[in-house]
Amino acid sequence: MTKSSKILFLSIVLFCVISVESQCAMCRAVLESEESQSTAKGINDGILYLMAIPYVVVGGIGFFIFKNFRRKKA
User: Hey, which of 17-21, 41-45, 60-64 has the most confident mean pLDDT?
Assistant: First the structure.
């Protein structure tokens, strides 16, 4: 895999965004009864934020380990 194809793949992964909604059944039932959907949007954003943090941390640690092993080989 060449460097330019890696950069292209990374940019596609980072810039392709899919809008998702995530709520448990009980939260959805309570929030759907509310007239303004501002609270529901806030709950969805909070759930997505909390879901993404572990992936970012594990990815960062993996990248750090990868760089250290690669530096030792060189």
Answer: 60-64
Give the tens place of pLDDT for each residue, 24-43. 777 777 777 777 777 777 88
In the numeric block, which tokens belong to residue 33? Answer: 């009864």
Taking the C-alpha atoms of residue 32 and residue 39, their distance in angstroms, rounded to an integer, is 10
Burial class (CB in 10 A: 0-12, 13-18, 19+), 24: exposed
Max alpha carbon distance in the chain (Å)? Answer: 61
End-to-end CA distance of the chain: 19
Q: Are the beta carbons of 23 and 31 closer than 8 angstroms?
A: yes
Q: Is the pTM of this model over 0.90?
A: no
Nearest to 29, CA basis, from 18, 19, 43, 50: 43
